[in-house]
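Open question from group meeting: does this chain pack into something compact, or does most of it stay loose? Before anyone orders reagents, we agreed to write out a predicted structure and look at it together. Recording both the input and the output here so the notebook holds the full record.
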Amino acid sequence: MKYSHMMIAFVAIVAASRQAHAHTLRPASLPKDQALALVLKSVDGDSRLVPAITKLQAAVQARPDDIKAMEQLAQLFIAQARLTSDETLYVRSELCGQLLETQNSNNPTALLLRGHSLLAMHQFHDAEEIAGRLIKIRQDMQDYALLGDALMEQGQLEAAVPVYQSMIDAKPCMPSYSRIAHIRWLKGDVVGAIEMDEQAIACASYRDPEALAWVTARLAFYQWQNDELELAMQTATRATQIVPEYPHALLVIGRVLLAQGKAVEAVACLKKAAATLPLPEVQWALADALHLAGQDDEAAIVLVSLKQQGAKADPRSFALHLATRGVELDQALDLAKAEVMTRRDVFSWDALAWAQHAAGEPEAALISTRRALAEGTRDARLFLHAGIIAKAAGEPSLAAEQLGKAQQMRRQLLPSEQRLLDESTAN
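Structure tokens returned:
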């Protein structure tokens, strides 16, 4: 099986998306024998990639200097991490990069692999530094992709846009179109995001089904954000036909079903998503669906799991969840503050603003929520939080504007958030 460098470039979007959080696991440089031992440790699971990983591990064990086998193994670690949410696989991918660098410190493939692994682990500044090194060595499309991703995740959208333009100038392809789609969504151009993601799908190949399923699920997400519920359902269903029970697509389907008031159907779908993607955003949606379906005991079990794993799995979404429920507010604030130190995008500012509001800091929350709104992102949760925060901070005009926008997008809110919206607009 052949794994192209294009796959590495594409995986960066997935690994550094809002649903990947391996940022606490960056390894220190290890002695070569220890690094190799971790790389060769068996991988569990029933993914179709596991046999290929095992075969490549055997090749590397037989010949540790086999550069091609090590490169392919690192790529598969990232792909397997994307499928299973096993964040330790990103560490193994970076260790592959470290081992490759022992043979050649300026090996572009080794640097690129390390850059993607660092990006997945939310070491954005270090990933940016590696991307800069790569661009000095060569001006490859993949290097611009890595740099743009690192800048974007640090909230530097204005700097990321020309970098992505250099990427698309070098090679118009699925990874470049998908990134432009994401930028357009962040800038509030949802229709433009849909157009670009359709271009990405047109460039995709069934030879890489996970990548095709990802861009298809992203299209469904943008359609859902644009309140095209039936179309989003059709698109997300198509993604599950490409990769059966693809969790990112199941999440969109579950959110559409919730928006349509079909709680029981949403529960069944979100349970499948949570089984392979046990992130706070998924578990939160599942708990809300269970409550709506009258299955409160099961919802309580999900919330216990969320409490146990949320801070590690995705501190930003977990902070939002805690602040929304009004519990563990000190932890929510600490998590949000830590997140914004490294990932200064609009959603980190929103998490901080919401945690500050819940902790009784209205002035600080207002400053943070203005930063969350600065790029023009159209997101119901951003609008809801901004409206409630502005109201508490004595900014009635801003509150009315943002709550009005949230009301227009209420079908994109979770049931628990819809209740908050109703309470805020009733008073």
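Observations to bring back to the group:
The first helix runs from residue 5 to 15.
The radius of gyration is 21 Å.
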